[in-house]
Amino acid sequence: MQLTRRHMAGALAALPLAPLLGGCGTREDDALTIWAMGNEAASLPALLGGIAWPADAPPIAVQPLPWTAAHEKLLTGFAGGSLPSVGQVGNSWIAELAAIGALAPVPAYARRLLHDQFGAVVDTNRIAGKTWGVPWYVDTRLQFYRKDLFARAGYDGPPPDWAGWKAALHKVKEQAGDGNYALLYPLNEYEQLTTLALSAGARMLHDEGGRGAFSEPEFKAALAFYKSLFDEGLAPRVSMAQISNVWTEFGRGYFSLFLSGPWTIGDLKRRLAPALQDDWGTAVNPGPDGIGSAAPGGSSLVVFADGAHDKAAWDLVARLTASVAQLALHEATVDLPARRSVWTAAGLMRDPAVAPFRVQLERATALPKVPEWERIVTEMQIVAERMVRGQFSVDEAAREIDARADRLLEKRRWMLEKGRAL
Amino acid sequence: MSLRRWSVTLLTALVALVTIAPLIWMVSVSFMVRGEAAQFPPPLWPASPSLENYRLLFGTFGVGRFLFNSILVSTLATGLALLFTIPAGYAFAKLRFTGRDAIFRMLVAALVVPGQIGMLPLFLELKAMGLVNSYAGALVPWLAGIFGIFLVRQYCLSIPDEMLEAARIDGASEGQILRQIVLPILTPIIVTLALYVFLSSWNDFMWPLIILADQHLYTLPVALAANSRQNVQDYEIMMAGAVVTTLPVLILFLALQRYYLSGLLTGSVKG
Amino acid sequence: MSAQRRTSEGASAVGRAGEVRAGWAMASPALAAILLFFALPAVASLFLSFTDFDIYALADLGNLRFVGLANYERLIQNPLFWKAMTNTLLFVAVGTPLIVALSLFAAMLVNSRWLKWRPVWRVALFAPYVTTLVATAVVWRYLLHTRYGLLNYLLSFFGVPPIDWLGSPTASLPAILLFVGWKTFGYNMIIFLAALQTVPRELDEAARIDGAGWLTRLRHVTLPAIAPTMLLVSVLTVAGMFQLFAEPYVMTQGGPAQSTVTILYFMYEEGFKWWNLGSGAAVAFLLFLCILAVTLVQLRITKRSGAI
Q1: Is residue C250 pLDDT above 50, yes or no?
Q2: Least confident of A31-35, A338-342, B46-50, C279-283
Q3: Do residues C111 and C16 both lie within one domain?
Q4: ipTM of this model?
Q5: Best CA proximity match to B238, nearest among C224, C135, A261, A408
Q6: pLDDT bucket at C99, cuts 50 / 70 / 90
Q7: Torsion angle of alpha carbons B177, B98, B82, A16, nearest 10°?
Q8: Mean of the pLDDT values across residues A189-196?
Q9: Mutual orientation of helices C96-111 and C118-130 as an angle, nearest 10°?
Q10: C301 or B89: whose pLDDT is higher?
Q11: Number of folded domains that form chain B
Q12: Which pLDDT score, from 0 to 100, does residue A226 have?
């Protein structure tokens, strides 16, 4: 125990420690840090081993983030000024990060990285005339279905037009038996409705993304179609939390069709019984008059603005998106490569489960590129769920979504007026 | 032994057992093999206990780092809190200075204000000071502990004034009085306060979640929460993580419980 | 202790000045910290709530607008805000009496004259309070699992079908309440224990000799004697219920169907997920007003009932 004066001296002595403690958190300036999520983060060390990083370039440090916290971490990093040099960013977040100035646009000397890509994917990254990230891997959502149950109902696969598709689902449901449904569209997920909307050609926002366009006929058509799926008993009114195990229920025949992405291919191979492995397949989404659309997803590699080592960062991005690295990424994570030429090299078109993804990606449409989009689409789904549960009619729901979207976009409209928005 | 004695004891034992059952189950599952706990009916004990989960935790998941962070932050928080609140508590109790009572009344009123109200501006304030994403940022709330001042003051009030006056007449400075007379008397409350701050800072979750962005700075609760929202299916590893997070605190509490409980009472019952 | 100098009456004035100086010197670091890290942010919170500070403003302060009470208006029109309010008030209204009753029951058990091995039970009953909330929330998430959870397994012995604790909007609130009750009742129990020990034994004995039953003695002897403590415990529990955050964050992410979104969880999402710091600050301020209001009401009720 010490004197009061020594207490004070101790406290004062601790002050110089403060910057040290403050500095304890920041990474060393000489390393090139890259943030990545999930499986890609796990595969990065091996990938980096194979890209021949020059010896005089700064050493690379990988920091993995869990997907569930990644969005918050990116924004906290921006707010706290602790973003790394390079990052893996989900394509739907590019607009947000670009709008706040967190990203550096693809420089002229790296323009060639944007060739050999899917149009819709690059379009997602292109805002205000600049491109803000290089696609790393792509995905989209399309249908996974039970081939045997569809065959039993008399179909080779789900028809590509909405009318035929619904008729097929009715037949499948009849064959499926009591208590079972044809389709799983969880009410807490918004991708199903947005896919229908994109297939119907809805633009969902207008006025440079300043106002909701959810009352336009295309979106209303999609909304009505979505509602009819539940009203006609084709899909159960449940959220994902109430499905204890998607793959078990799929195998059981509780539903014969659901919407998901390429990661489910591996999941189904691993978790479905071997006897069922021949009984499932993938198909492109249906549209009102034929093949429908979908939102392009995946992640891009971005270089953050105000990061250290600009040139080295773009060099790393170039090396990680080179064909060889893309192939390695696919082999490590089963992610679909962003470069179209790599699809052929990897023989992906020969896999009947994967081939429809290529077709769908060629017909994908970018979602509105405004920072508020994720919030808008969350509200949209909340209203859609209420509509399915009988609280709103289609028209009322469309009006309500528009009202909520307009409220969320109020600041953006102000920024657009002032010329401050991207 | 009378029937009454046995029945009351038995009832209490039952309630106590039900209360700590989740903790016992937590330890039990942490020794189970991957996937063993996810079956029906749920098993109570591992078929063949294995340290595999702990090996994975400290090996692949690097929990050692989070453990180190928690120990570092909690120890520093405790030390700093003691440094700041003990002199202040004594001053409010025994030293007459202008505005003392008015300020103290304001502090008591401030106890009603929930800590979270200033969380967002505090984040911005620390960003301006450059302390976001650092250990120092995580320590900040523990310097401003009103409850500690209250506790120390309460205890100091019982020190007889004559003792202090006599020391002053003998020519001791205020600082010497604090060091040589008061601190020895305060020892029980110092231990209580230290334990309280250590436990609270170890268990603190919301503030470190906000202020620490880099994974290598995470304390155990934050790391556990970040991973729990991700690994929905891996019970056994999560339980092992929970054990590592709770055990140090539980052991510390068991060792020093008398101080902790008495300190709680001094602070609370008086109101 | 070494005597530095002999004093006379003149020195007492110097001593007094020294006392004032020392008083300020000892109190200022803590006061400075409180001012800088508590008072300042709290006041700033109020000001922040009158602006539309959001992600755009974070990027460039020029994008900040002063919007007066617009945040508050928008909150009042936001159905999720009211859902959060309702959920929180449900927790407060239902949880507080339950937890207070539970801790009183436990305290009475531990206080009983006929109890053996008292310290063991006291520690066991207090242990959950000391454990890390996040860790135990994870444990309880698995205990409450619909199919593999111990709770449903135990209930199945009583013929109760498996309850989807964390997946159904109606069962999720009780589930979290169960967990919060388990976690916090120990703290209140200790306080009640201390209070119970001040209840005059003679009064209780006299009542028993007069033939009063256990319940009558409880109502007329014990409860009135510990009324101030009941108030204290209620105030503490209410404040705690208003500030539930980690439980929904770890166990349910506010779901299912937003049935477990509490005010603080809502504030966290507004502030740190969507980066509407202006709106988040407004929520924080409203929360403060709620806690203040409820505390004052509790004080008023107890004063009026003459208990204190």
Answers
A1: yes
A2: B46-50
A3: no
A4: 0.81
A5: C135
A6: very high
A7: -100
A8: 95
A9: 150
A10: B89
A11: 1
A12: 96
Measure the CA dihedral B207/B213/B218/B219, to 10°.
Answer: 0
- Closest residue in C to B179 (Cα–Cα): C1
The DSSP result for B68-99, as a single string, is: HHHHHHHHHHHHHHHHHHHHHHHHHHH---TT
Check which CATH number belongs to the domain holding B71 and give it. 1.10.3720.10
Confirm whether pTM is higher than 0.95: no
Q: How far apart are the first and last CA of chain B?
A: 40
- Counting every residue, how long is chain A? 422
| C99 lies in some domain | yes
Task: Measure B167 CA to nearest chain C CA, in Å.
Answer: 9
Q: Which of B127, B174, B227 comes nearest A79 by C-beta?
A: B127
Over residues B224-249, the mean pLDDT reads: 77
- Indicate whether C54 belongs to any domain: no
pLDDT, chain C, mean: 83
- Flag whether C101 is in a domain: yes
Cβ–Cβ below 8 Å for B265 and C134: no
B95 occurs within a structural domain: yes
Domain-embedded: residue B41: no
Chain B contact present for A27, CB below 8 A: yes
Chain B positions in Cβ-Cβ contact with residue A68 (cut-off 8 Å): 226, 229-230
Whether residue C278 sits in one domain with residue C233: yes
Look up the domain containing C112 and give its range. Answer: 72-304
Residue B170 lies in a domain: yes
Smallest Cβ distance to A11: which of C22, C29, C273? C29
Kindly tell me if the per-residue pLDDT of B149 is higher than 80.
yes
Task: Label residue A318 exposed, middle or buried (CB < 10 Å: 0-12, 13-18, 19+).
Answer: middle
C132 and B249 within 8 Å at the Cβ level: the answer is yes
Same domain, C41 and C130: no
For chain A, what is the mean pLDDT? 86
C78 to chain B, closest Cα gap in Å: 20
What domains can you pick out in chain A, each with its CATH number? 29-139+296-346 (3.40.190.10), 142-294+368-418 (3.40.190.10)
Q: Which residues of B touch A80 (CB under 8 A)?
A: 127, 132-133, 213
- Please report how many Cα atoms fall inside a 13 Å half-sphere around the Cα of residue B74, on the Cβ side: 27
Percent of chain A residues topping a pLDDT of 70:
92
Same domain, C85 and C203: yes
pLDDT in tens, A270-296: 888 888 888 999 999 999 998 999 999
Q: Decide: helix, strand or coil at residue A117.
A: coil
Residue A421 in this model has a pLDDT that exceeds 60: yes
- For A4, which of B84, B174, B215 is closest by C-beta distance? B174
Nearest to A158 by CA among A148, A168, A149: A168
C-alpha distance from A79 to closest chain C C-alpha (Å): 7
| A contact test, residue of B133, B181, B187, B222 with most A CBs within 10 A | B133
Chain mean pLDDT for chain B: 83
- What is the tally of structural domains in chain C? 2
* Cβ neighbours, 10 Å, residue C51: 20
C257 → chain A, closest CA residue: A188
Higher pLDDT, C170 or A342: A342
Q: In this structure, is residue C1 part of a structural domain?
A: no
Range of the domain at B115: 51-268
Q: Which among A210-224, C190-204, C247-261 has the top mean pLDDT?
A: A210-224
C231 shares a domain with C96: yes
- In angstroms, rounded to a whole number, what is the distance separating the alpha carbons of residues B242 and C137? 9
